[in-house]
Each structure stands twice: as structure tokens, then as C-alpha cells.
Amino acid sequence: MKPRRLGAWLVIVFGVLYFFVPLLGTFEFSLRLLRGVYSVAAYRIVLADPRFAATVTYSTVLALATIVMGVALVVPTAYWIQLRLPRMRPVVEFITLLPLVIPAIVLVFGYLRIYNSSSALPLTGSARTTDLLLMFSYVTLALPYMYRAVDNGLRAIDVRTLTEAAQSLGAGWSTILLRVILPNVRVAVLSGAFLTFAIVIGEFTMASLLDRPAFGPYLQLIGANRAYEPAALSIISFAITWACMGLIQIFTRGVPGQVAGAH
Amino acid sequence: MAEVAPATGPSSAAPPWVSEVSWAWVGVVPFFVFALMFLILPTGLLVVGGFQDKGGHFTLRNLLDLFQPTILNSYLISIKVSAASAIGGALVGFALAYAAITGGLPRWVRPTLMTFSGVASNFAGVPLAFAFLATLGRTGLVTALLVHVFGFNIYSIGFNLLSFSGLTLTYMYFQIPLMVLIMAPAIDGLRREWREASASLGASTWEYWRYIALPVLWPPLLGATLLLFANAFGAVATAYALTGSSLNIVTIVLYAQIRGDVLHNQNLGYALALGMILITGLSNAAYIWLRGRGERWLR
């Protein structure tokens, strides 16, 4: 038993090193801006950059819009599949997994082809409609995670009984969805929402190819032109990811069947 | 995963709304419109475009042109990096999950590992590239420490972060935790009794692995490795921020093609995308098939 446990500890220590050393290296690097002393100058420069605030705001607003749109699309669909169309489940599940099969760069290439400014639906024609297209792109990216989370949540409650009870009290479909189903799966929805936020906030490929001023392309731009500021930005984004995952852990504690972060 | 939810019961229960069942499909129309607009049509049009020439006529020319050395080479580098990071990530990730679950470690190890894995598997893209530059770049912390403490410069023995080995090492940062998350349920399915029974029958550790654990675990193991492969194959941001365009993996070529038609042929670009869909599609199909096989034992 003893050598076995020692081996297990060695593996864990290796994992801990792989996880923490790059973070430590980044943190140390981010403090090196001033020659000879450690300082937070790099953070000060980054936080004072108006583009930092602008791009983070842009990406945050976009992430929130993505979450609202994603919930509005996924919750009614998953509910309806569970209640009325269980035979459609394999088809819908297959579609929700497609974004894991088709790389994001291929999807956005397709969008640029069918929604270009000379097409029937010229979504890339103006900045506002491109924002809309980017939001839908992100709903697509987050679809596998959002759908799994909500579907797990719906499986854990008795959808049929809740619906019948609400109907017998005279509730319409919108009341059932908004005031009966949604509150019952709010933990699942929240964990899907935080995961969506973590994915969207630093996303680079789609935002860059659709030419929108998001946080991901800004990170890349700073990385290409500066030395120490990127490390500071990296630590900031890591903190954001960490906050999202931490919130998932807090909200889903004690709820079985939640797979936060799992693909 | 694919089983029909037993909670809802079979339709033979004759619910009161059976008479209006023909209209039930209306409820999923928004979802299918969305899927058509943002998944199926965009991908489908690229696939069709891959088979067309400039005038819109059918041709196989573009697909054959994918075999020209520069493009073929970019696919090969992508496949090499994805395979290496998937296999490396799978081995380390499996060892970590196995150690945390069955290694007899304190109780807090497992939930802590799962939490950190959730974070690390989502820490990818541009910031991850910066982190590795700051750690293993020419002036990075680990590089400098190795020089100071051991007088040993990893760059003098041919290591370069902006190369195949560097990119693989960087990708493994999100591959390892992803493997931990996928494999933990499968390892949970390994019954303690199996090991005890085999030991009481005189089996060695090697025989236990060879005849019991691996035959049960290989479908999920191989399936998860394929998923990691597809995960790395489609990645753009990490490689782009790390190497710029010095390492021509296929996603970087496609990125440049979308930005400025570097191949000087739009339809060849569509074929490039088609090739990527084929590769990720095949590895995902194999994953789904293997997962179905694995679920027979691991309940």
C-alpha cells in the first residue's frame, strides 16, 4: 500500500507543478516592467489603457447578451423535447454537439461567406448587425455546454407533473416556462451561464475575423507589441476564468449531475 | 447519455394532449431555424464551395490541390501537434485522475483536482500563450532558473517554444485537465471488488491491468484521446498568439486565407475548411462509437 500511495502523490505533485509553474512564471514576469525591482507598473499601464476598459466592456455586454439569447433558445427547446418530443432527442442532441465537431474558425468562415455584404442577409454590412452575428456565433460556441447543463437540470425534475399542475391552475405556456420551469433549473442555467461567460470573454478567432473590438483581439494586439503588459493581462484573464468556475462550484454545490467545465 | 429519459415515461400512458400531438413540432422550430442558419447552412456552403471552381462548376481540382506540399505540410504539422498533445494529455490526465481517485489519498484531493481541472481546461487561447512565453520563453522564469541553478540553457539543446515541441507542451496545459474531467467517471466505474477478486485469485498488478482494467477502460481512454485530438486540431488563438505565423499549422493557414486570400483561390480555401471538418468529424465519430462501447461495462 505504501509505495502505491507514494506513486499517487508523485503524480499529483507533477500535476500541481504543471498547473502552477506557468502561472507563477507569468506573475513573476508581469512584475518585471521596471528594471531591477518588482513593481505593479505593468498592471497600472494596462488598467489605465482606455482600450482595456472599452474591450472588456464590449466583451462583457456581448457575453451577457449571449447568455440571455442562449437561455431563451435552449430552455424552451430542451423543455419541449423532454415533455412532448422525446423521439427528437437524439437529433437535437446531435446538433448541439456539432460546434465541438466543426472548428470555430470554419464556422466563422461559413458566416463570412453567407452573410457578406452582398448576400441576401448582409449581417456583416454594418457594425451593429455584425455584433448581432458575433452574438449568434457565441451562442453556437456555447450551445454544447448550455444544452448539456440545462438538459441535466430538466432530467432532475419532474417536468410533466410540474407542467400539469401549472396547467390545472390555469397557467399559460409563458407562465409555465418563466415562473415554473426556469426557477427549477436555475442552478443548471447559472452553471451554463458562467461557462458561457468564461468562453466568450477572451474569445479571439471569431471576434478577430468579424473585426469587432473585443477583449480577445485586444489581448493579441498587446501581445504582439508589448513585453510585460501581456503577462499582466494574462493574470487578469486567469482571474476572470477562475471567478467563473468558482461561481459554478458555489452554485452547483450539492446538486448531482452537474458537469461544470466538462466537454 | 443517449437513453430516453425514463422520468417522462412512454407515450403509451396516453396523456390528455395526445390529440394535438401533430402540432408539437412547432415548439422546436426556433431551435432548428437557429441550427440551420448558424451551423448547417454555413458549413454546408463551405463544403459545396470546396467542390466548385470560380465559375461555380463542379470540380475535384480544389481537393487535389490540397495535396500540394505547403498545404499538405500544414495539415501534417497540425495532426502531429494535435496527436502529440492528445496522447501526452491523455497519459498524464489519466494518471492524475487515477491517482486522485484510487491512490488512497486524502479525501480533499479529488474535489480539488476536479475544480482546478475545470479552471485549467478553460484557460486557453491568447492568455495561455502569454503564460508559456513568460515561463518557457527565452527570458522566461523557468528558462532563467535552469540557467542560474544548473547552468543549463534549454534553448542551447534545440528547445524552442515557437515550435512543434513548444506548442505541444502549451496545448497540454488544457488537454491534461480535460482528460481528468472526461476520465473521472470511467475510473469511478472500475469496481474495487474487481481488483480484490483478481488479487485473491493470485493476479499480479500487471495481470490486473492487462486482463481487467484495460479491457474495460480502453474504449473511454481511446475515445477521450480522440476528443482531445479534435479539441487541439481546431484551436487557433493559442498557436497564433504564441508563434504568429512562424509555425504553419492548418488553422493558421486558414486564418490567413480568410483575412487575405493568401492561397489566391477562394475555393481552395473552402476545400481547406472541408479537409478540417473531415478530420475532426472522423475523430468525433470514432469517439461517439467508442463511448457507446464503453458504457456497457461502466455503469
TrEMBL record, chain A:
This is ABC transporter permease subunit. The keyword Cell membrane applies. Its main location: membrane. It is a multi-pass membrane protein. Keywords: Cell inner membrane, Cell membrane, Membrane, Transmembrane, Transmembrane helix, Transport. It holds the Pfam family BPD_transp_1. PANTHER family: INNER MEMBRANE ABC TRANSPORTER PERMEASE PROTEIN YDCV. It comes from Candidatus Segetimicrobium genomatis. Coiled coil: none annotated. Belongs to the binding-protein-dependent transport system permease family. One of its GO terms (biological process) is transmembrane transport. GO terms for cellular component: plasma membrane.
